[in-house]
Write a structure and sequence with these properties.
There is one protein chain. About 35% of the residues lie in helices and about 20% in strands. The strands form two sheets. The chain has a four-stranded antiparallel sheet, sandwiched between helices. Strands 4-5 form a two-stranded antiparallel ribbon. It has one domain: Alpha-Beta Plaits (2-Layer Sandwich). The chain is of the alpha+beta class. Bound molecules: uridine-5'-diphosphate and magnesium ion (MG). Uridine-5'-diphosphate (UDP) binds next to loops.
């Protein structure tokens, strides 16, 4: 089944200079990268991304983690991979959520750790299923930032909208 999946290299992954290693591991899947960018994560974006965990005791720490406040590295790398069984393949390479339970050869097993406050710093986010992938891709990317048409779009005219452009 052709699927798309949102991948985030989280701030610990960037701080530890793991971008190259993680992208190399993901390239084993032979999936296609259809979008990529570096993002400064606002609190609103982090809360929306992890809203399914908002009642968990570690939620506040998790939001700080995704925003890069725990690593003095306020950015994540966001990518969309597309291809056959993309979600299953990427989740498999990422490994289990808890880095201590993850297969030691997986990305999280290799590079993750549990902080003293109990948050799993696991270097990478991978959408869990097709429904989550669609929600997350639409949250992190605008249609023009993705080189293929993944989901239906609409075109709207907007007046009096302030835009930044090159001078
Ligand atoms: N997380 C955590 N403690 C937990 C569960 C989750 O710190 O007991 C963090 C971890 O960074 C994880 C993220 O919250 O990647 C999102 O959790 P989810 O259950 O969605 O796991 P994932 O889909 O990332 O494997
Ligand atoms: Mg999840």
């Amino acid at each position: 089944m052709m699927q798309s999946v949102l991948i985030l290299i989280k701030p610990d992954g960037l701080k530890k200079s793991l971008t190259g290693n993680i992208l190399t591991r993901l390239s084993e899947t032979k999936l296609e990268i259809v979008a990529a960018k570096i993002v400064r994560v606002s609190r609103e974006l982090a809360v929306e991304h992890y809203k399914h965990l908002k009642d968990k005791p570690f939620f506040d720490e998790l939001i700080k983690y995704l925003q890069g406040e725990l690593h003095d590295r306020r950015k994540v790398m966001a990518l969309v991979y597309w291809g056959k069984d993309a979600i299953t393949k990427c989740r498999q390479l990422a490994g289990a959520t808890n880095p201590e339970e993850a297969d030691p050869t997986s990305i999280r097993g290799s590079y993750g750790r549990i902080t003293t406050s109990g948050v799993y710093e696991n270097a990478i986010h991978v959408s869990a299923n097709e429904e989550d992938a669609e929600r997350e891709i639409k949250l992190w990317f605008m249609p023009e930032e993705i080189i293929v048409d993944l989901y239906p779009i609409k075109e709207i005219m907007q007046e009096k909208r302030k835009l930044k452009c090159w001078d």
